[in-house]
From TrEMBL:
Keyword Transferase tagged: yes
Protein name, as recorded: Ornithine aminotransferase
Lineage: Eukaryota, Viridiplantae, Streptophyta, Embryophyta, Tracheophyta
Any Gene Ontology biological process: L-arginine catabolic process to proline via ornithine
Listed InterPro entries: Aminotrans_3, Class-III_PLP-dep_AT, PyrdxlP-dep_Trfase, PyrdxlP-dep_Trfase_major, PyrdxlP-dep_Trfase_small
A Pfam family reported for this protein in Swiss-Prot or TrEMBL: Aminotran_3
Length: 300
């Protein structure tokens, strides 16, 4: 299905990423002959791969990194989508680069987790060819429940369902409908909604922080929950909508209607009721100084 020779099942997205980082470093030392303790992992500004120590060391999320230092060394950051900057990094440090960690679409997407367990079992996976995977030998890495029979069976069944029921294609079609409905909401509330973006059923709205103040994306999501729809806030201004691939067209419409009703009926009262001195989340990365949600930097 993915074209790799081997798979190493783990439990969570963060555990999968940590495993991939160890694997990349081991390959770098054994096959690429990087000098001892000099391996570099390149990651993207604005990424999110979990909350374990090595992973947050590559994060721009202040909430994930503050109070947990010193962070793990051995990595370089590059702006997401900046191929010229990435090429420069490889020219300057290529002999020591063991891996490039990135998300095809930024949005706290993870690697292979979440849906892999069918929504019921914690399971993730690391995929690699033998030349890479076999660099780690028995006893050098392990996981108490990684690759357990139940999780593995669920993951296989989940992948079968995704293929047989063409859920990826379904996501693409329903995603177009969802985006169209969200664009209509943006057009109706241009003062509040700055941008609508997404791919398939992985979508998000970014709000104008000034016109939304003192209400936050978290507050919007709480109101949506009261009306029967679960959405995920990202910092203060972004609401992420990632509905299940098996949802119906009627449910797509209902979800959009709930968001519309929150903006039309609830938001004015929320702005009046919430204290004006409510704290906001800082958007300037403590480490690279980047404005995480500047209009020129796109992330879900």
């Amino acid at each position: 299905m993915f074209g790799y020779e081997m798979v190493l099942p783990m439990n969570t997205g963060a555990e999968g990423v940590e495993t991939a980082l160890k694997l990349a470093r081991k390959w770098g030392y054994e096959k690429k002959k990087i000098p001892k303790n000099e391996a570099i992992i390149v990651s993207c500004c604005g990424c999110f791969h979990g909350r374990t120590l090595a992973v947050i060391s590559m994060s721009c999320d202040n909430e994930a990194t503050r109070g947990f230092g010193p962070l793990v060394p051995g990595h370089i950051k590059v702006d997401f989508g900046d191929a010229v900057a990435l090429e420069k990094i490889f020219k300057e440090h290529g002999d020591r680069i063991a891996g490039f960690l990135f998300e095809p679409i930024q949005g706290e997407a993870g690697i292979l987790g979440k849906a892999l367990g069918g929504g019921v079992i914690p399971v993730s996976a690391v995929l690699a060819d033998k030349d890479v995977m076999l660099c780690i030998r028995p006893g050098e890495h392990g996981s108490t429940f990684g690759g357990n029979p139940l999780a593995s069976a669920v993951a296989i069944a989940s992948l079968d369902v995704i293929q047989e029921e063409k859920l990826a294609e379904r996501s693409a079609h329903l995603g177009e409908e969802l985006l169209c409905q969200l664009v209509k909401i943006k057009e109706e509330f241009p003062n509040y909604v700055k941008e609508v973006r997404g791919r398939g059923l992985f979508t998000a709205l970014e709000f104008n922080s000034k016109s939304l103040f003192p209400v936050s994306a978290y507050d919007i999501c709480l109101k949506m929950k009261e009306r029967g729809v679960l959405a995920k806030p990202t910092h203060d201004t972004i609401v992420r909508l990632t509905p299940p691939l098996c949802m119906s067209r009627d449910e797509v419409k209902e979800g959009s209607k709930v968001l519309h009703d929150v903006l039309e009926l609830d938001l004015p009262n929320m702005q009046k009721a919430k204290p004006k001195d409510s704290p906001t989340t800082a958007t300037i990365c403590d480490r690279c100084g980047r404005n995480l949600y500047d209009p020129s930097d796109r992330a879900l």
